[in-house]
Amino acid sequence: MSNQHISSAFDRDLEAIQAQIMKMGGMVERAILDAAKSLETRDVELAEQVRAGDKAIDALEQTINEEAARVIAIRAPTAIDLRLILSVIKISASLERIGDYAKNMAKRTSVLSGLPEVDGSQTALRRMAREVQDMLKNVLDSYVQRDAELALNVIQQDTDVDQMYNALFREFLTFMMEDPRNITPCMHLHFIAKNTERMGDLVTNIAEQVVYLVTGETPEEGRPKGDLSSTDLSVSKV
Questions:
Q1: Three-state SS for 155?
Q2: pLDDT one-digit tens code per residue, 45-86
Q3: Distance CA 87, CA 210 (A)
Q4: What letter would DSSP give residue 222?
Q5: Residue 226: pLDDT band with limits 50, 70, 90
Q6: Percent composition of the chain: helix, strand, coil (DSSP 3-state, to 5)
Q7: Which of 80, 83, 32 is nearest to 54 (CA)?
Q8: Which of helix, strand or coil describes residue 147?
Q9: Which pTM was predicted?
Q10: How far is it, in rounded angstroms, from Cα 150 to Cα 131?
Q11: Is 208 in contact with 218 (CB distance < 8 Å)?
């Protein structure tokens, strides 16, 4: 087989993998929005759909990893192409983890539906989730367009998510001090807020991968971190 044929076959493989990444990204975006909506409206059925849909996200990550491994084994890519394939693996891992956090948010909906409402908190959490979803949309666009500047903007956008988290953290502490009945719902809501903040961190990881993919270098400046809370209440892995 000629080098030209090998090259075009490799390009087709890459296009197929990247199409799967975009599909996975769209599924994760929908999971974030649906999980936040289910929380705000206390829609247990929608929350269950998010939890069930996470299996499809996990399966797609596995498919992407298997296809990426196959391409590395068969095509023996050069350094630049290998960087692209490895970035795909890392991006799919971040997307899968974001999906896990969305599933966690949905899990809390059924619990919170039986607890007193905390004024304005669900709406604020949904706003925070929308910001993360917007970050994810932008970073996926930056990946497709190979736009390092847009990816750097996403990294800066994460500061807004951190500020939203800090405001909610202080608000929950105030509610808990004012009325002991707020303690249990606020603990659950804080868990959701912290996981949403972590989603933003994972989107930032993807943005850093895009910058590296385009420029061959990681972003020069350290990522700005606005999470100033020193207490991590009831936060755990999935």
A1: helix
A2: 999 999 999 999 999 999 999 999 998 888 877 777 888 888
A3: 8
A4: P
A5: low
A6: 85, 0, 15
A7: 32
A8: coil
A9: 0.87
A10: 15
A11: yes
